[in-house]
């Protein structure tokens, strides 16, 4: 199988990664114990190891390439061993273990994923944490990877054979022009078909449109970065790395969210955003901070699938909306109306315009520029937004692991440099599960904010009568 180049956005995620701010996302699944047998964390880890072996993408690592200087490609890991990626952990405070594990960077010389079976307090449910580098998966593909490890997904998998040496294919094009001693065993050069001049000419209008769109997005990003930032309470330390994390969760009833939606209009996602805004207000008041003034700017990712035929076509394709959360508004229904109005404006403009579409600029940057620009972009995320809020779609069917029922699933979004909070939501079995990943120095009381989510929803329900 030929190596597959990372898409421009995946390459950006790979280069944005740093030890103090790793660009991996994750999810924590909570499972009921089987009353007929004790939890065997080591046995579960062995089961997950075997299942991971059968997923071809989990056997691939990122390697540099010569063609497309500065680029990278997915290639088979000749020394792949899933046991290096799956571990059993025993900690009384399971959520503290999740926070610690999410703060650790992954080995960039191996396939960028990890799985942990976390055995907590006796008689408590056990948890499974899945970590995937953002270059490997967006939220939707992370769900696909996770599902492959569960009982339902494993039934559809066939064991993936260990990589074997294939006969050498005839070299063509530019690859044939490179001497063997230059290519070397560690250099990956895909075959390079010569472009058809007619196709180049036919693509010019599209290229002009793409350039115009990139210019418009860049201008919007510049204007947005000049807007006042959100509350100081959400300002993380501008340190180069080594940041400790906190992780907290909340679970909301989908029926309660629909009740608010039916009374006030909009979408369930609008209601969730209003709940997040209300929770931030309550949290700030509990800390003695004044919620008045400019609200935090929330970046809301929007998943988009890449067109077929584009290099790196299986990679991430993400745009987003930028929304200022109305935490200064004391009336919960007025907060919801403000959120609805802001989201309607974003949707009318579309996900391919505005500052929230900053991720689409990755397509306009050559591979080598990604490497040089990554440190600057990592340091400037705080200028554009204050908090990440993402909604991860989830299969709403009963899921099990080794016969144990999955009861909850909390997604985890990456925390960029200069950011103190990332909020990720998913719906499973009539509950909206919310995972909060926070900078420990700026937001040590993540549990207080998680509890405030319940209070903010109750406030909305009361206001709806």
Automatic annotation (TrEMBL):
A Gene Ontology molecular function term of the record: diacylglycerol O-acyltransferase activity
GO cellular component, one term: plasma membrane
Residues spanning the membrane: none
InterPro entries in UniProt: Acyl_transf_WS/DGAT, O-acyltransferase_WSD1-like, O-acyltransferase_WSD1_C, O-acyltransferase_WSD1_N
Assigned EC number: 2.3.1.20
Pathway(s) annotated for this protein in UniProt: Glycerolipid metabolism; triacylglycerol biosynthesis; Lipid metabolism
Domain O-acyltransferase WSD1 C-terminal as annotated: residue spans: 315-460
Annotated O-acyltransferase WSD1-like N-terminal domain residues: 6-272
Domain of life of the organism encoding this protein: Bacteria
Reactions catalysed: an acyl-CoA + a 1,2-diacyl-sn-glycerol = a triacyl-sn-glycerol + CoA
One Pfam family matching this protein: WS_DGAT_C
Keywords: Acyltransferase, Glycerol metabolism, Lipid biosynthesis, Lipid metabolism, Transferase
GO biological process, one term: triglyceride biosynthetic process
Signal peptide: none
Enzyme class: transferase
Family stated for the protein in its record: Belongs to the long-chain O-acyltransferase family.
Name of the featured protein: Diacylglycerol O-acyltransferase
Organism, as annotated: Actinacidiphila glaucinigra
């Amino acid at each position: 199988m030929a190596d597959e180049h990372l898409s421009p956005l995946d390459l950006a995620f790979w280069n944005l990664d740093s030890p103090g701010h790793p660009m991996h996302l994750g999810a924590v699944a909570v499972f009921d114990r089987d009353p007929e047998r004790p939890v065997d964390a080591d046995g579960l880890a062995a089961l997950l190891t075997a299942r991971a072996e059968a997923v071809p993408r989990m056997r691939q690592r990122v390697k540099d390439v010569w063609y497309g200087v500065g680029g990278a490609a997915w290639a088979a890991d000749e020394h792949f061993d899933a046991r290096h990626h799956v571990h059993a952990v025993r900690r009384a405070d399971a959520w503290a273990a999740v926070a610690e594990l999410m703060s650790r960077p992954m080995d960039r010389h191996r396939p960028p994923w990890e799985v942990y079976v976390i055995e907590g307090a006796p008689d408590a449910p056990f948890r499974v944490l899945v970590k995937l580098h953002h270059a490997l998966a967006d939220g939707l593909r992370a769900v696909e990877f996770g599902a492959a490890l569960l009982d339902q997904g494993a039934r559809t998998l066939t064991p993936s054979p260990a990589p074997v040496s294939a006969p050498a294919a005839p070299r063509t094009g530019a690859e044939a022009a490179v001497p063997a001693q230059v290519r070397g065993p560690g250099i990956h050069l895909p075959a390079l078909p010569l472009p058809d001049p007619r196709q180049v000419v036919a693509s010019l209008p599209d290229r002009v449109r793409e350039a115009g769109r990139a210019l418009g997005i860049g201008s919007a990003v510049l204007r947005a970065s000049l807007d006042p930032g959100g509350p100081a309470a959400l300002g993380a330390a501008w340190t180069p790395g080594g940041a400790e994390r906190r992780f907290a969760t909340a679970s909301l009833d989908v029926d309660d969210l629909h009740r608010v939606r039916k009374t006030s209009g909009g979408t369930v996602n609008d209601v969730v955003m209003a709940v997040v805004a209300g929770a931030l207000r309550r949290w700030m008041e509990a800390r003695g901070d004044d919620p008045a003034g400019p609200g935090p700017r929330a970046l809301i990712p929007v998943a988009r699938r890449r067109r077929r035929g584009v290099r790196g076509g299986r990679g991430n394709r993400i745009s987003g909306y930028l929304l200022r959360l109305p935490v200064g508004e004391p009336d919960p229904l007025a907060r919801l109306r403000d959120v609805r109005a802001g989201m309607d404006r974003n949707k009318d403009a579309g996900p391919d315009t505005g500052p929230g579409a900053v991720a689409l600029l990755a397509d306009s940057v050559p591979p080598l520029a990604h490497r040089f620009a990554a440190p600057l972009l990592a340091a400037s995320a705080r200028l554009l937004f204050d908090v990440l809020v993402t909604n991860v779609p989830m299969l709403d069917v009963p899921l099990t692991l080794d016969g144990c029922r999955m009861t909850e699933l909390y997604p985890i979004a990456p925390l960029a440099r200069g950011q103190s909070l990332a909020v990720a939501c998913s719906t499973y079995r009539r509950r909206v599960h919310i995972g909060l990943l926070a900078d420990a120095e700026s937001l040590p009381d993540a549990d207080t904010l998680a509890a405030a989510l319940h209070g903010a929803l109750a406030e909305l329900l009361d206001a709806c009568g």
